[in-house]
Design a protein that fits this description.
By secondary structure, the protein is α+β, with helices and mostly antiparallel strands. 52% of the residues lie in helices and 21% in strands. It is built from 25 helices and 23 strands. Strands 13, 14, 15, 18, 19, 20, 21, 22 and 23 form a nine-stranded mixed β-sheet that branches. It has a six-stranded mixed β-barrel with strand order 3-4-9-6-8-7. A five-stranded mixed β-sheet has the order 2-10-1-12-11. Strand 16 and strand 17 form a beta hairpin. The protein is elongated. The mean pLDDT is 81.
């Protein structure tokens, strides 16, 4: 039989005697490691799932848009070593959905080879099949649109292009790697599947419809791993030059409008290249994933920081209470290092228990979290593996943090001399001036008030430790609630303050602003306003932002812009309003002059004063008066859309009359947009609910541990008070009052710290997403109330087990002990 070292037996006995306190600390570590493993493994699973799916369907690396190019260029591009290229036709159509409203939706059409899947950007057929060889009027429908409209293989859809309508048979429902997240553009990142869809048709049919016989309007390239992309792009440019494409531009390209004008004069044609990372759908997926990863790291970090505080307090109390035992161990020959490692062992045992159970729980939860996320975004495939690197890191963090936190209390044992340790520690007396001042001020008050206040200042360090536990709970609850409040506030502002319209009518291309007048005269329409939105680049010095400029009437009653100060701000003739999310990237201050450059064509370049920054929640864009944007385009009657305010709910007849107007492409109801956002936010609310639950649980554990230690540290003191006749009720009142006062101090400190930490978390989660979403930190009064009430109620309840333990002790025995 192997003998267990005496110090190990002592360690186990000590942990057993205070199993509730050590269990609470282990539980805190368990929560932190669980969230870290769960979140980060889920993030890695999703990242692998994305990339694996992109690789399996040979997703392109570069998209090159041109007006038209001969398909011979595609064959030449395929001759470049390590490059697979396809040419395809992309065009916009309207889809007549029929029904009693005569609903029309906007659609993107993309051509595919007529007889086989393409070599790049394959589509995955979910149901039905591919095109048949003998019939040309066939399409494949992207699954988001098909699911919403209940479209099945064998159904027929009517497509309209330039006033010509034709019926197409739906051959299959497909998933495309380009449209895992369906977007129109970065500014219209969340189109409703009710009003927008993506369709694929045979190449031969697309050539006939769009007049592109033997030509393509888009080239897609996939570059093999390990191939020098710089050299590949140089060869691509050479091939394009042989086909009269003299320049390739890209996102944030330094080429100015003047250079493009010279190109036009010289007859130089331009192509626009988009890398995979700059595709709006890929950007959204990546931003969503990176924000998820950031939270998966920051929340556990916050939890484990709180755990380190609890470890420090617990071991400090242990060392203080075992002074005589430490002195005895030194006297009988135990070395300083043996005693140091003995007390470090408490932190190690707690860390091992919390981290190992946390790793197991986190790993099991990661699989479910990955599956939930994949189903939310309709990702066709999911890969779940064990990430041993993350598990090892989780175990090391779970053990390392308590060891570091326990080092200082354990180190203090080295300075204890045996003879000194055998005597009781000198009781804490507090600052003499403070104590005398308190005695004078509290003279008229009863002892049930004087004693708690004196105790708080008698041992300030102990009081501050307990207050920090309460502050930790407040911080955790406020951080979790801040996400709930920020999302509620942002979308409430967007849909109830900014957007005053009920529907947005998309016109076919650049239409006539007079269409707003026609729609406004329909029965059931209360008000309309024309809108003109054009893609633009905003330049200030060397900084640029690619966005769009929306023009609507000054003093608009349909779209209220909100400035940095939260007040309404209107568009102005001599300036441009820019989203506040671009402020840091652009670097311009209000009053500076910025350059506005059209992204399409060369008409409309100008300089404008930056009139202000505005808050935008969904789809960042700049704003100017409608008339000014029309002047820039040299088209005073132009519009691309119309704000519509209905007089009550729109009838089917009203919607049909709107759809029947020749210039109307689609009508998007605000209610549909809100429903889509609510659906897409489902996973977000699950995550926030999970974090809030964990935050509250952790806060309870921290407060419970702090209160328990605070009460048990003073067992002898309370036993003496009971022995001299103080009743149990009075004792409970004094301890509760003392803890409550300390709790109030913790709340006062926790609220500003919680706001600061919440701001850090919000900034981290929003980093890189300013083109699509912009959520400002908001904490409602309800969240402060919840945090304060929960912290103080838990504080008072947590003292009950410790007080009961004190009452069960033998008074005669306790009052004779030196250890307390």
């Amino acid at each position: 039989m192997v003998a267990v070292p005496k110090l190990h037996l002592k360690l186990l006995r000590d942990i057993k005697s205070a199993k509730i306190q050590y269990g609470a600390v282990a539980f805190i570590i368990f929560l932190g490691i669980t969230i870290f493993i769960c979140g980060y493994e889920a993030y890695l699973n999703l990242d692998i799932s994305y990339n694996s799916y992109f690789d399996r369907l040979n997703m392109g690396d570069y998209w090159i848009s041109v007006d038209e190019i001969d398909n011979r260029a595609v064959r030449q591009l395929n001759e470049i070593p390590g490059v697979a290229a396809i040419g395809r036709i992309r065009g916009d159509v309207n889809v007549d959905m029929g029904g009693e409203t005569g609903e029309k939706v906007a659609g993107h059409v993309i051509s595919l080879p007529s007889l086989h899947l393409p070599d790049v950007n394959l589509v995955q057929i979910e149901s039905g099949g591919y095109f048949s060889p003998e019939f040309g009027r066939e399409i494949l429908v992207e699954n988001h649109f098909a699911d919403y409209h209940k479209i099945q293989p064998g159904d027929w859809l009517t497509l309209e292009y330039q006033g010509v309508k034709a019926k197409f048979r739906v051959m299959g429902i497909v998933v495309s790697p380009e449209y895992l997240w369906v977007t129109k553009s970065a500014q219209d990142a969340m189109p409703s599947p009710r009003t927008f869809g993506v369709f694929f048709m045979p190449e031969s049919t697309a050539e006939q419809i769009f007049g592109m016989d033997g030509k393509s309007s888009e080239l897609v390239l996939r570059v093999a791993p390990g191939v020098d992309r710089g050299k590949v792009l140089d060869r691509v440019k050479g091939i394009l030059r042989r086909h009269d494409i003299g320049r390739i531009t890209s996102k944030d390209d330094p080429v100015k409008v003047r250079a493009r004008e010279i190109d036009i004069i010289r007859g130089v044609r331009t192509a626009y290249m988009t890398a995979r990372k700059d595709l709006p759908s890929v950007q959204l997926l990546r931003q969503d994933l990176e924000g998820f990863a950031m939270l998966a790291f920051l929340f556990p970090l916050l939890f484990l920081t709180m755990a380190s505080l609890s470890i420090y307090v617990l071991l400090s109390r242990l060392v203080e209470s075992q002074r005589i035992q430490i002195g005895l161990m030194r006297a009988i020959g135990y070395s300083r290092s043996s005693i140091l490692f003995h007390y470090m062992g408490f932190a190690l045992v707690v860390g091992i228990a919390g981290s190992l159970t946390g790793v197991i729980a986190g790993h099991l939860l990661a699989n479910g979290l990955t599956e939930m996320y994949v189903s939310q975004l309709n990702i066709p495939s999911m890969i779940v593996i064990t990430h041993w690197g993350v598990i090892v890191v989780g175990i090391l963090i779970g053990m390392g943090i308590p060891l570091v936190a326990g080092l200082l209390p354990a180190w203090s044992t080295l300075s204890i001399q045996p003879a000194e340790a055998m005597r009781p520690a000198i009781p804490a007396s507090g600052n003499r001036i403070v104590m005398r001042t308190l005695a004078f001020l509290l003279g008229p008050f009863p002892y049930v008030l004087k004693v708690p206040l004196r105790n708080i200042f008698r041992n300030v360090r102990r009081s501050l430790f307990m207050a920090s536990g309460v502050a930790s709970a407040v911080i955790l609850i406020l951080v979790s609630m801040s996400f709930v409040d920020a999302v509620d506030s942002t979308f409430d502002m967007q849909f109830n303050v900014v957007q005053k319209y009920d529907a947005f009518v998309y016109l076919q291309g650049v239409g006539a602003a007079s269409t707003a007048t026609y729609i406004g005269n329909l029965k059931g329409v209360k008000e309309t306003e024309a809108v003109l939105e054009m893609p633009y680049r905003v330049r200030y010095g060397g900084n640029t932002v690619d966005t769009s400029i929306a023009g609507f009437p000054a003093g608009s009653s349909m779209y209220w812009l909100v400035g940095e100060d939260g007040r309404r701000i209107d568009v102005t003739n001599d300036g441009v309003l820019i989203p506040i999310s671009y402020k840091e990237r652009l670097g311009a201050e209000v009053g500076d002059t910025v350059q506005l450059e059209p992204l399409v064509g060369t008409v409309g370049e100008t300089e404008k004063k930056l009139a202000g920054y505005v808050q935008t929640a969904v789809g960042a864009r700049a704003f100017m008066p409608l008339r000014e944007v029309q002047k820039l385009q040299h088209n005073l009657g132009a519009a691309t859309g119309i704000f519509v305010k209905f007089d009550g709910l729109p009838s089917a007849d009203l919607l049909k009359r709107m759809y029947d107007m020749p210039q109307v492409a689609s009508v998007e109801l605000v209610s549909d947009t809100r429903a889509l956002i609510d659906e897409m936010m489902g996973f977000f609310w699950v995550m926030i609910g999970f974090m809030l639950m964990m935050g509250v649980t952790l806060g309870v554990a921290i407060i419970f541990n702090g209160v328990t230690i605070n009460v048990l540290q003073r067992t002898r003191e309370m036993a003496v008070m009971r022995a001299i006749g103080l009743g149990d009720f009075a004792l409970v009142n004094m301890i509760s009052l003392e803890n409550f006062i300390i709790g109030v101090v913790g709340v006062i400190g926790g609220i500003p710290l919680g706001e600061w930490v919440a701001r850090l978390f919000m900034e981290a989660s929003q980093r890189g997403a300013e083109d699509v979403f912009s959520i400002a930190l908001t904490i409602f009064p309800r969240s402060y109330i919840i945090a304060v009430v929960v912290a103080l109620v838990v504080l008072l309840i947590s003292q009950i087990p410790a007080l009961l333990q004190v009452y069960r002790q033998n008074l005669a025995t306790v009052t004779k002990e030196w250890s307390e």
